Amino acid sequence: MTNKEKARERREKRMQEISLLRTIPYSDHHRWWSSENVAVVTGSNRGIGFEIARQLAGHGLTVVLTARNVDAGLEAVKSLRDQEEGLKVDFHQLDVTDSSSIREFGCWIKQTFGGLDILVNNAGVNYNLGSDNSVEFAETVISTNYQGIKNVTKAMIPLMRPSPHGARIVNVSSRLGRVNGRRNRLANVELRDQLSNPDLLTEELIDRTVSKFINQVKDGTWESGGWPQTFTDYSMSKLAVNAYTRLMAKDLSRRGEEEKIYVNSFCPGWVKTAMTGYAGNMPPEDAADTGVWLSLVLSEEAVTGKFFAERREINF
């Protein structure tokens, strides 16, 4: 058996394990939440976001779906209600790249629910498929996938409700954005070290890194800039998300016990969704599992500032 075949076999076995884990219900002992707890899932009118919203609602939380397109969002809510009676799901329009849209959404959350307990930052875009590596839409990708998560998170943190179980922020990311991955990593060793060192990691450093990439895209020199080689703009956006996850976890760890917010990111895998042209090898139902698990894990088992895939911690 070749190494490639062995890897495929391991992946298929792990997918079977994930499918089995999804069938195991959370017992009352593990259930810290109720229908009074509110989970917001951005970009949840389809794909992984829709499935995360469906599973969280199925576990008994009140779930708010968001989408840029109102009709698409309302159709998604209708679909969930038609699938299963009694799900507590709602919808509000949200464009994560629009500051006024974020402000309006925050006001609505506060007025309607008084706050939220779980934020799943799922909204994202990718314009490359297969072997493509265009950076034509790099600014949109960075604006949506990184700056969108950052701005929504900053707006939602003041609205996250105090709880002995801790509030949760879950960022949907990708292994393509690993700073120290064996493949597809930054060529600049010094920059990798800075982004990996919690004492050196700052929001300014992350922003400066993505700004340098965008500037090189604009002047046509990005190919010699030492950036990731696969899906370069998407990889850079997720590298920034992973770094920001660790930064926010560190900042929020200073809070008191009743105001704890756990922040983690996860890679859902190569999923059969519109973002991959439905070429992935994992169904959204399984891909959503780790995000749901991170949202609901018991506070005594909860970690923060980590990166996960298939319920296992992996390196940034």
Automatic annotation (TrEMBL):
Keywords: NADP, Oxidoreductase
InterPro entries associated with the record: CBR1-like, SDR_fam
GO cellular component: membrane
Statement: the UniProt record of this protein carries the keyword Ubl conjugation: no
Pfam families given in the database record: adh_short
Keyword NADP: yes
Annotated EC: 1.1.1.-
GO molecular function, one term: oxidoreductase activity, acting on the CH-OH group of donors, NAD or NADP as acceptor
Family: Belongs to the short-chain dehydrogenases/reductases (SDR) family.
UniProt-listed PANTHER family: (+)-NEOMENTHOL DEHYDROGENASE, SHORT-CHAIN DEHYDROGENASE_REDUCTASE
Name of this protein: Short-chain dehydrogenase/reductase
